[in-house]
Amino acid sequence: MLNKWLHRIWKGKPRMSIGEMKPKGWGRPPGVRPGIFRPHLEALEDRTLLSTWHGPSLWVNGNLYFTANDGIHGQELWKSDGTGEGTSMVADIEQGSGGSYPLNFTDVNGTLFFTAQDGIHGRQLWKTDGTPAGTVMVSDLGVYMGDGMDLVNLNGTLFFHGLAGSAYELWKSDGTPGGTAMVARVPESSPPVAICAGFSPFDTGNLTNVNGTLYFFTEELLGCPVGGWQVADELWKSDGTSAGTAMIATIDTRWPNWGGGSLADMVDVNGTLFFSTPGENGYELWKSDGTSAGTVMIESFAGIPNHLFNANGTLFFSMGSQLWKSDGTLAGTVMVADTNPGLSPAGIGDFTLREGWLYFTTAAGGVAQLWRSDGTAASTAPLATLPFQGPPPLTNVNGVFYFGGPDGTGGGNIWESDGTSSGTFLLSDPDNRIGPSLEVMGNQRNPGLFNFTNGGGTFFFETNDNYPDPNDLHDWESGAGTEVWKSDGTAAGTIMVVDVSSIGKIVFHNTPAPAHVVAGATSGNSTVVFSVNDSHQLMRHDGINGWVWMRDNVQSISVVTETSGNVVAFAMTTDNALLRYDTVNGWQSLADPGTIRMISAGTDTSGLADVFVVLTNGSMSEWQQPSGWLPSPLTEPDPVWQGNPVPGPDSVVSLSAVDQGKAIVAFANGSVMQYDSSMGYDGFFGLPMDLGQYAAAVTDATGLLNVFAYSPNGGLWEWQGGIPIPTSSQIATDFSIQELSAGTDANGQANLFAVTAAGALMEYQKTSGWTTLNPPGTVQDLSAGPMDQLFVILTDGRVFERDDQHGFFQI
Question: Do residues 150 and 205 touch, judged by C-beta distance below 8 A?
């Protein structure tokens, strides 16, 4: 463990200070060669912990790219535009459940380059444009590319390095096989001697762009003295050509058995390269202008100069709990402040800038703090004390910092700051789903909060919701449990985009049979299906990503398609909250109207989604956007229709919202009424008064309202609005009905699907009358859509879609 930790510190990937907590997810993916360790230190075993490993994330050309395991394909490359519909696996690079473990994400002019293993060629260079067809291996280079490899965008060309035999090679690529070539072998004389027993070459590291010149660090094997080897640590540079690639200076020569190749960090400060490395004088800070004579040591220290950072043309770095700065001279290299004097372990996290100030986090003695500095001791001070065990990294999104991590109590949380004490506060613990997760490190339970990313001005992060819990329906012993979240900086605006581990995981025929299924068609003629099962899990299917878990504790769901094509869902939870969801805004909590008995979604006069609710207190209310709940409940004192009093909403047995702010209401006494948000209750000329057991309604393609109503005594009737006179007729008397759902057929005319008491599934069309359908099982619930679409859920839990062209097919 220690050797890998020290290796990572000196390599600077990820950057850490002595005393910092090891970041969650430092597992090594299968097939990735570990950082080269010396035999006098014990190497770690190779093992994979899917519940703790996670790869990088990067925002490229309007999409967040990340790695995730859906339980079917292993760890693969995924992307998200911040919506559930826009989140999908990019490609199954290693076919099957093994996973390709993508790493080293780099953006080159809108194309994502990365390394991955396909199970055939080893870890190689890949690129993607975000499509499966556009995700390809650039070339089989015949070199090894490990997890410590650097990929760098230098003036629109990708540079990287790989191991060939016992020496490292610098390569460049324009993304095509023909445009991918080796620049130089470094060191060019390697190997000058026979390979020493037990020696493994250290990787070329820290590829750094300084004014269009690439700098990097490597080692050269000089000889094999008795009992070990001797190496030289060397600084190199390249202009992208073989002739322009050369060693600048030998930084240190050491032997025997000490690995070398130990750069902690490299940074460009106004055209001068600064770097740190262990050497003969301890831990040393150096600078270089690209020449041998201009490559000099500035100062040596007892501690490690770490987190080298360019702040307004001045080099800042940390050393334990101390903040330092340097102008490149010995006299100008001074300590600014000691943030936690006398406490151990202590450390400083990464730096970031905001309005000319340097911001960073610290941790010592189990307490973390957010600090800022202008480079003077007097103005270097803490802004807030934070409940974290280590110094969390800061993610700057439009001038707002986001940071988070374990709080030491088995939970975790996310904070935000505008750079002031008063503007630093706890953001949220979204939906109580950022909770304990499992990390195998000293048996410590840490929450999985990682990959904080600025995605085009939106804050994204990922969680690992996979703490083993036999009572957790989302727990999955072989999956990564990755959830992608986004936030606009408010608790209400912090929403989960997708739970990757539930895609393909919760299959209906392996879980209790769902109790409801509803559907809505998008403007592109694709269909979104929502379902709530008997365990109160809300699931969603869009035909692309399969079934996706959305949230728990949902009692019922109603879905509508707005005029714009936006699909909106309204969900009533088991604790009586009413929520609204669409792919743009995510989940929104609506104000509490009272204890809800039933809900139905429609559209208002503007084509926007509205929802009618029947409350247990005997009232009915309507929510519209943007005004919210209407000022008063939808009740009338003893309304009368055709001389008969209309019963109150407490006796509603069926509710069906349609368009234009209208709802069709069936009452226990048999009355079927229309409620208009502007005119109140109205009846239907020609309908008997004893049809109030089931009612369904739909607006056809001509804009006419069609109402279907049924009771055992009156049979099944159809009513259609019209000018000057609406029409009504009895369409069935010879069977009993248990469920109705109205839609439109391929011609835009209203049609009706019904489940009879005998279990038969029937369809009624205006032109052909009744047809008996043959579903592949007994129908438990159904939902009709446009274009003769029908969605049914069977008693065994399977969900099927049906249309005239394809018949029934499982989704």
Answer: yes
